[in-house]
Amino acid sequence: MAKLKIMCARSMHEVVTALAWDFTSTTGNEVELSFGTVGALAQRLDAGETADVVISGKPAIDALEKAGRLAPKSRADIATVRIGVAVREGAAAPNISTPEAFRQALVDARAIAFSDPAVGGSAGVYLARMFTELGLADAIKAKGMPQQNGGEVARRVAEGKADIGMTLIAEIVPIAGVRVIGPLPKPLGSDTIYSAGVMATSHARGAALAFIAALRQPDRRTLWKEAGFEVGA
Fold it and tell me: Which residues does 180 contact at the CB level (< 8 Å), separation at least 6?
């Protein structure tokens, strides 16, 4: 039996942990999971760290493939997640149906929690740019509450410390006391496609490919959707 090291984007923590447990139970292969933001994973890989499987944002997997660091024909798209807007359970939902209405909701909010771009997560990086493009950079400096991860964003909303929270939907869903009222209104928003690939240095390619296949099984689609992701039909 193989022992696989899996490096995975942090927002997939809940569902990948559950599926890894199923994979181990079914195949007997051991799995060591290591989670981090897309940016942090890229830094670790650039520093020479390796794994059997890397699950990260599509551009990061594209870069690994281009650099020849993935085994040939081993990559696959896994799931897509969108940035969502959250409010406290039971609170009235502001109008976020258009970019203009969404901007006004941010202006009216007392405090806004969001993923800190300095951490390197895809949601935080996008939101920082969006705030500037909406002309809200100064307002966000005054009432913004940047958080180290999406779970903390959702917790600030659940606690009533923030009126609105924004992060990847998959990081909001597991937190009690908060609800997603929708994704960012189009054309705002930056969908994150997560892909997986087997690293060329892996000595357990067969088991690694089987792990990626297990993530994509049709009977796992409901689990992905309940966790806040979108998957292909």
Answer: 84, 85, 86, 169, 172, 173, 228
Helix (H, G, I), strand (E, B) or coil at 230: strand
User: Is-contact 188 166, C-beta < 8 A?
Assistant: no
Burial label, 199 (beta-carbon count in 10 A; 0-12, 13-18, 19+):
buried
pTM: predicted TM-score of the whole model, two decimal places = 0.83
Please check whether residue 1 is in contact with residue 47, taking contact to mean a CB–CB distance below 8 angstroms: no
User: What is the number of other CB atoms lying within 10 angstroms of the CB of residue 90?
Assistant: 7
pLDDT tens-digit map of 159-181: 999 999 999 999 999 999 999 99
Q: Residue 144 belongs to what H/E stretch?
A: strand 144-147
Find out whether 121 and 39 touch, Cβ atoms under 8 Å. Answer: yes
What residues pair up with 173 in beta bridges, in sequence order?
Answer: none
Quick: pLDDT tens for 48-70. 999 999 999 999 999 999 999 99
The CATH architecture assigned to 3-80+193-226 reads: 3-Layer(aba) Sandwich (3.40)
Mean pLDDT calculated for residue range 98-108:
96
Q: What pLDDT digit, counting tens, does each position of 113-137 carry? A: 999 998 878 888 899 999 999 999 9
Does domain 83-183 match CATH 3.40.190.10? yes
